[in-house]
Amino acid sequence: MPIQHEKTKLQVPRGRLRFDTFNPSEEPTGEEEMGNCPSFVVTIDSQKAELFSAETASSELIGTAVGQVKRTGKVTCNNMSMATYVRFLAGISETITQSATPVVGEMRTVMPGKLYQLGQTVDNPIGVRNVTAVTVKSEDGDDTYVAGTDYNVEPETGTVQIVAGGGIAAGKVQFGYTPVAGTYTRIKTGSKLTLLGALRVVADNAQGSNNDWYFPRCNLSSSGDLPIVSDEVEFVSVEFDLDVLKPANAEAIYLAGRPIAS
User: Pairing relation of β-strands 195-203 and 159-162?
Assistant: First the structure.
């Protein structure tokens, strides 16, 4: 009987990445899909000691010992969801509720030709957006200025422009407006630089067996540029660095096939 040779198993990898961000007690909170990630690569570096013989002229290698192993990864993601921004900025996501309570007498110091964000405060640096019934009055409230002549308004962004050459001089004015009631997501950076969690890859390969990966403990951190404005006609993507850590009571990486019913 002829020798049975190993059949080469070709693979074109595809899959979905799920990240489980740990809470402050380093407990899992539930996995979230990261969306389309066209690339995820793992790199393993090891440091080893080498011993060369001193008994021969050529001093040949006679022994090695691996002393350190470092496992890292690189994820490319072009799913630019708010969750991706949270991961890239290592930020905090908040749901902000905007009420429809009319605002009167919001005092601001203005200059002709400049733009002003309505509702901007220390607690709400983004300001109020999506507003109606915008008015601009003099500091004492006795004079009401004319929209389109003395000032312009962009209601969607809550921006007022003081028209150069209009009736508003440099100094203080009163803004009035009514916000539209609604909620929105706001992300802000904090003191964290990385996210500690677990990463799972659910395979759906274009070719080859579907083997799923699990990294039970890893640090995810942003890497490289985040395009915010660009004249390029291309989709935005961001990159994350992954430090694969070994948990106290588990291994660093797991790779598993899927059970086949017998």
Answer: unpaired
8 Å CB contact between 40 and 75:
yes
Query: What's the pTM value of the predicted model, to 2 decimals?
Result: 0.86
Q: What is the C-alpha radius of gyration for the chain, rounded to an integer number of angstroms?
A: 29
Give CA angle at 26 (25, 30), nearest 5°.
110
Angle at 193 between CA 74 and CA 198, to 5 degrees: 55
List the Cα angle 243/247/253 in 5-degree steps.
Answer: 60
**How does pLDDT run across 79-129, given as a tens digit for each residue?**
999 999 999 999 899 999 999 999 999 999 999 999 999 999 999 999 999
Spatial distance between the Cα atoms of 239 and 245, rounded to a whole number of angstroms: 19
* Cβ atoms 198, 19 nearer than 8 A: yes
Q: Helix (H, G, I), strand (E, B), or coil: what is residue 85?
A: helix
Name residues whose C-beta falls within 8 Å of residue 71's C-beta, 6 or more positions apart in sequence. Answer: 42, 43, 44, 45, 243, 244, 252, 253
Residues in the chain: 262
What DSSP state is assigned to residue 169? P
User: Where in the chain does DSSP place strands (E)?
Assistant: 15-21, 31-33, 39-52, 61-77, 91-98, 103-110, 115-117, 131-138, 151-154, 159-162, 171-179, 182-189, 195-203, 212-223, 238-244, 254-256
